[in-house]
Write a structure and sequence with these properties.
single chain; mainly alpha; about 0% strand
Length: about 170
């Protein structure tokens, strides 16, 4: 349940409250397993849930920016690039989940480097798609975007790509 609420943090608090109310009943109604049996693994966050959250975030981002009709014409390539980056991130997470365990730390580092390179390429695709739209935004509109994407301002510190909700499914 914590994972669902964390993913909804970018949405309105009422949405999080509604999800909590809907999910808490069945979770609280579950019986306690026998002491010697491992607890059941319940993944409450499905692929459909992830898609619904991405849809909501894209609608919210578009709303937060407050696109004019002329700017709205530049939105579709941005949305498509974000959707593709999120899809690629989820695919990388799924591949990691089924991969053979790492044999040593060099394998771990190599996998990390590969994931960072893939996220970098996805991010460059999003940037390329966003440039025409961002060029048409007012300074006030531009100011609203970074925080909504999950970017942080940490005085000269690098921005980890996994903190961007575009790559959130890769954190699993």
């Amino acid at each position: 349940m914590t994972r669902i609420l964390a993913r909804l943090s970018g949405l309105a608090p009422m949405a999080a409250l509604a999800v909590t109310a809907l999910l808490a009943g069945p979770v609280l109604a579950q019986t306690t397993p026998a002491a010697d049996a491992p607890p059941p693994v319940v993944d409450l966050y499905t692929e459909a849930d992830a898609q619904a959250v991405l849809d909501a975030r894209l609608i919210a981002l578009k709303t937060v920016i407050g696109l004019t009709p002329d700017q709205a014409r530049l939105w579709d390539p941005v949305e498509a690039a974000i959707r593709q980056a999120a899809k690629n991130g989820a695919a990388r997470a799924a591949a990691r989940a089924t991969a053979e365990p790492a044999t040593d730390f060099l394998v771990v580092l190599e996998r990390l480097a590969d994931a960072e390179a893939a996220r970098a390429q996805d991010l460059k695709t999003v940037i390329a798609a966003a440039k025409p739209l961002v060029a048409a935004l007012t300074p006030e509109q531009k100011r609203r975007v970074p925080g909504f994407l999950g970017m942080s301002d940490r005085a000269g510190q690098p921005q980890p790509t996994l903190e961007l909700w575009i790559f959130e499914d890769e954190q699993e």
